[in-house]
Amino acid sequence: MIVDEKPDFPSDLSSVKIEDEDGERELVNAQLIECASVDGRYWFSFAEISAAELEKEKTDAQIIYTALMTDTLLEEE
Question: Which residues are bridge partners to 42 per DSSP?
Fold first, then answer.
């Protein structure tokens, strides 16, 4: 989408309804993608985060948390 000014986006993008000339659709677990502007307007898009990706992010966060709490975080060389 391209608009004249940056909209106020809610912090919770778990359900985003989009209305345009093609009708209305709903995105679940949306991610905001901000694009580079070439004309001074605000360019953006949304992408849905899959359930598998959400589960992977949750698992990764739990692993890092556990490693930090038990002081077993592996350092990269």
Answer: 3
pLDDT surpasses 70 at 27: yes
13 phi/psi in degrees, rounded to 5: -110, 30
| 58 neighbors 22 (Cβ within 8 angstroms) | no
Banded model confidence at residue 77, pLDDT cuts 50, 70, 90: low
- Reported pTM: 0.66
Q: Are 44 and 32 in contact (CB under 8 A)?
A: yes
CA distances from 56 to 11, 20, 31, 46 (A): 21, 32, 16, 20
Residue 43, both tokens: 């360019």
**Rounded Cα distance, 9 and 61, in Å:** 25
Q: Give 36-51 pLDDT, tens digit per residue.
A: 999 999 999 999 999 9
